[in-house]
From TrEMBL:
<protein>
    <submittedName>
        <fullName>MetQ/NlpA family ABC transporter substrate-binding protein</fullName>
    </submittedName>
</protein>
<comment type="similarity">
    <text>Belongs to the NlpA lipoprotein family.</text>
</comment>
<dbReference type="InterPro" id="IPR004872">
    <property type="entry name" value="Lipoprotein_NlpA"/>
</dbReference>
<dbReference type="Pfam" id="PF03180">
    <property type="entry name" value="Lipoprotein_9"/>
</dbReference>
<keyword id="KW-0564">Palmitate</keyword>
<keyword id="KW-0732">Signal</keyword>
<keyword id="KW-0449">Lipoprotein</keyword>
<feature type="signal peptide">
    <location>
        <begin position="1"/>
        <end position="18"/>
    </location>
</feature>
<keyword id="KW-0472">Membrane</keyword>
């Protein structure tokens, strides 16, 4: 009987180890969607992946810094660097996963050629994505910019169409489409709003953009075995194939 109890106790202990949980904060699409696909891959390494969804760029970083999350998956490196500087956090990248090209959307226009003088354009209001959106518009020839590292509308040096910029929280940008002529929207929020970047966007960010989306942890946890297991799963051939097959160019692998 004692031997049986010892065996059962050992099996129970092994079961608890096998079910160690990795808690990751993510925005819904495509981040949480990719993580759902990754769950069986992480399970093979002996971990249970728990996903907490956020429609916010601040809370998941703070929760990761404070240890409430093991990691988060929603942002790119320029945003992370700016967040660390402003919030004095110590968050670091582990792996790059995918790139979400920004898109330029409109409900009222069929092409950028139809854009009228004085039109309103909504853009993200967080520093890195605002700069990124303005760079997209500059690449399209609608404005020119100075060489400030993070650009805002005051860094526009030429605005031939006298476009008027409305700065909005990134998750809310799709809701502005009825009130503006153009909106420059992150792909994850476009997808969440039912927009198809490859069909609905009037223009897309260049594929050589540096804004790959990354897995982020608190500094010092980069070599934690469960983080390493998650890194390996997110950068696996299976995930690369999943991204290519599922999103068909709306997002692209960054590894």
């Amino acid at each position: 009987m004692k031997l049986r109890v010892l065996v059962l106790s050992a099996l129970a202990a092994l079961s608890l180890v096998a079910k160690e949980v990795i808690v990751v904060g993510a925005t819904p699409v495509p981040h949480a969607q990719i993580l759902e696909f990754v769950k069986p891959l992480v399970a093979k390494a002996g971990y249970e992946l728990k996903i907490q969804e956020f429609n916010d760029y601040v809370i998941p970083n703070l929760a990761t810094e404070e240890g409430e999350l093991d990691a988060n998956f929603f942002q790119h490196t320029p945003y992370l660097e700016e967040f660390n500087k402003n919030r004095r956090t110590t968050l670091v990248k582990t792996v790059s996963v995918h790139l979400e090209p920004m898109g330029v959307y409109s409900k009222s226009l069929k092409s950028l050629d139809a854009l009228k003088d004085g039109s309103k354009v909504s853009i993200p209001n967080d520093p890195t994505n605002e700069s990124r959106a303005l760079e997209v518009l500059a690449h399209l020839g609608l404005i020119t910019l100075n060489d400030a590292p993070l650009k805002t509308p005051i860094d526009i040096t030429s605005n031939p169409k006298k476009l008027r910029f409305v700065e909005i929280e990134a998750p809310q940008l799709p809701r502005t489409l009825g009130d503006v002529s153009l909106s420059v929207i992150n792909t994850n929020f476009a997808l969440s709003a039912g927009l198809n970047p490859t069909k609905d966007a009037l223009a897309m960010e260049s594929i050589d953009s540096p804004y790959a989306n990354i897995l982020v942890v608190k500094s010092g946890r980069e070599n934690d075995p469960k983080i390493k297991a998650l890194d390996a799963a997110l950068n696996s051939p299976e995930v690369k194939a999943y991204i290519l097959e599922t999103f068909k160019g709306e997002i692209i692998p960054a590894f």
